[in-house]
Amino acid sequence: MCTGKCSRCIAVTLYPLALISIICNIVLFFPDGDIKYAQDGHITEEVKYMGGLVGGGLLVLLPALYINLTGKQGCCGNRCGMFLSIAFAAVGVAGALYSLSVAAVGLQNGPLCKVVLIWGTPFKNTDSSYLTDDSTWWQCTEPKNIVQFNIGLFATLVVTSSLEAILCAIQMINGLFGCLCGACVDKGPL
After folding, report:
1. Which end of the chain is more exposed for a tag (fewer CB within 10 A), N or C?
2. What angle, 0 to 180 degrees and rounded to 10, lies between the N-to-C axes of helices 79-109 and 146-181?
3. Is 129 helix (H, G, I), strand (E, B) or coil?
């Protein structure tokens, strides 16, 4: 397969993944669909790092846009273009890894919630994992269903950013082949 066509397939696949990351991060700011938690600062700390918005979103969109805008008829026109795609894909890998690490820490620590009358993270630094033991979720009284909310969105970010990192790494390898071997050129019928 032509390295340029492979690049375009990767770029097209990165768009929805980046969009999912951005949406998940934005939704995490509004537990229970209410803005009062964000206004009062009662948001899980890892949400504020904006891993999905910045890392899995904007930094992954850079290689996707570069590849899409510079590709011509399925090929990245020259070796320099493929070399630059390696650099942009490396930015995408870094962004995806940032998003992945923030989401993984968010899953590990658990949500910020009201426990009796005090806001805190009741599942942080505990011996057992709240992810596998839903009998402890009752501790979070506010926002409603915050544990399920955080698990669902942070897990989605983990999966999405993992796929983004893999695709951007493939693009780095693809770009290296395109840089070393040259881009495909359709000479047409003679």
Report:
1. C
2. 160
3. coil
Tokens, residue 148: 């399920």
Question: 89 pLDDT band (50/70/90 cuts)?
Answer: very high
Q: Where are the beta strands (DSSP E) in the chain?
A: 71-72, 75-76, 113-115, 118-120
DSSP 8-state symbol, 138: G
In 3D space, the residue among 26, 29, 27, 54 whose CA is nearest the CA of residue 41 turns out to be 29
Give pLDDT tens digits for 72-84. Answer: 554 445 667 777 8
Preceding amide of 143 cis, omega within 30: yes
End-to-end CA distance of the chain: 21
Burial of 179 (0-12, 13-18, 19+ CB in 10 A): buried
